[in-house]
Specification:
The complex is a heterodimer. Chain A is of the alpha+beta class. In chain A, 38% of the residues lie in helices and 28% in strands. Chain A is built from four helices and four strands, in the order E-H-H-E-E-E-H-H. Chain A has helices at 11-24, 40-51, 90-97, 99-107, and strands at 4-8, 57-65, 68-76, 82-89. A three-stranded antiparallel β-sheet of chain A has the order 2-3-4, with helices on both faces. In chain A, strand 3 (68-76) and strand 4 form a beta hairpin. The longest helix of chain A is centred in the first third of the chain and has 14 residues, at 11-24. The radius of gyration of chain A is 19 Å and the shape is elongated. Chain B has a nine-stranded mixed β-sheet. The radius of gyration of chain B is 22 Å and the shape is globular. The relative contact order of chain B is 0.17. Classes of the chains: A alpha+beta, B alpha+beta. The interface between A and B is large, with 41 and 42 residues. Strand 1 of chain A pairs antiparallel with strand 5 (131-136) of chain B.
Chain lengths: 112, 247
């Protein structure tokens, strides 16, 4: 084998690795609460509440159920009515919705 | 389980790497000479507790290895960490371009062997303790071209060595990959053979073991042999260009 060269991980990558190893991997227990249960009614209420802070808000909330992470995404129009809604995978919802999804999730974060 | 997304991410990266070499081959067919087949191989090794994901994609030069796997943070690194703190989950890691690091969800050590047409074969290795090493690979098996990622699985992640589990994961998360995904599988087959045949089989396969012996009504004896055969089992679902097994 040729000479071995050692490199240090860039700081942010190191931080990410620590996060992956220490936070997400912890004896098979994920960081996200597994027993979170929010009713459809509750989701709608959250969407309506979010509307009061934004003219047009896209609200999505991860719903962990039977080890499947599902999202319900709503587009709420000016009068607060739900104009569209469908179930989708969390990753799919994120790809479509981006930061608004995250900010809403943060605002209405799960209680573990 | 959230950890399972590592396989989707690594297969997705493998597919991207094959896309790149296939794109190059449109203008210069000779780039495929080093490895004409385009494939993704999954190799569980229960003896060494490793799961290997190998592709015949574009591979990485030494500079690519240093830059892409550790020293230059992509913009997505910070963005992903911010997203995590805002409530995103780990399954979104691929969207930030840092899916490779999800390997550490299931592995405590990761070894990357890679060969690019423009460079020698190199080995990248890290246990994520703040550093990684790069070595020119002068002794290992030649890849021709492509990348081999060896995951040294954590003690409680051995489920990812099970054939059934891997197949299910590929079907669940990597159904629409455009290249053949092949799983290295071992199958035990029981076969009745005569004494003569037994000698022949015994000479051919060292994995053959006698499990029982029976006497037939005509007085001849038949022996039942258990033969462990290993082969590639194609797991990909869609019939892709270059995937002879699926089309």
């Amino acid at each position: 084998m040729a000479e071995r060269e050692e490199y240090a991980f860039q700081a942010e990558i190191n931080q990410l690795l620590s996060l992956i190893i220490n936070t997400f991997y912890s004896n098979k227990v994920s960081r996200r609460p597994q027993n979170c249960s929010i009713s459809w009614h509750g989701l709608h209420a959250i969407a309506y509440d979010a509307f009061s802070y934004h003219d047009l808000v896209v609200c999505a909330l991860a719903h962990v159920q039977a080890r499947q992470q599902l999202c319900m995404a709503w587009r709420v129009d000016a009068d607060g009515a739900r104009t569209s809604g469908r179930g989708c995978l969390s990753a799919e919802a994120f790809a479509c919705l981006g930061v608004p999804l995250l900010s809403c999730c943060r605002k209405f974060s799960f209680v573990s | 389980m959230l950890q399972e997304i590592f396989l989707r991410e690594l297969i997705s990266n493998a597919s991207d790497a094959i896309d790149k070499i296939r794109f190059q081959s449109l203008t210069d067919k000779s780039v495929l000479d080093s490895q004409p087949e385009l494939f993704i191989h999954l190799i569980p090794d229960k003896a060494n507790n490793t799961l290997t994901i190998q592709d015949s994609g574009i591979g990485m030069t030494k500079a690519d290895l240093i830059n892409n796997l550790g020293t230059i943070a992509r913009s997505g690194t910070r963005a992903f960490m911010e997203a995590l703190s805002a409530g995103a989950d780990i399954s979104m890691i691929g969207q930030f371009g840092v899916g490779f690091y999800s390997a550490y969800l299931v592995a405590d050590k990761v070894t990357v062997v890679t060969k690019h047409n423009d460079d020698e074969q190199y080995v990248w290795e890290s246990q994520a303790g703040g550093s990684f090493t790069i070595t020119r690979d002068t002794e290992g098996e030649s890849l021709g071209r492509g990348t081999k990622i060896v995951l040294h699985l954590k003690d409680d992640q051995m489920e990812y060595l099970e054939e059934r589990r891997i197949k299910d994961l590929v079907k669940k998360h990597s159904e629409f990959i455009s290249y053949p995904i092949q799983l290295w599988t071992s199958k035990t087959v029981d076969k009745e053979v005569s004494d003569d045949e037994e000698d022949e089989v015994g000479n051919i396969s060292s994995d053959t073991s006698r499990s029982s012996s029976t006497s037939c009504c005509d007085g001849s004896s038949a022996k039942r042999l258990s033969t462990a055969s290993v082969h590639w089992d194609t797991v990909c679902i869609i019939a892709a260009a270059g995937c002879a097994s699926c089309s």
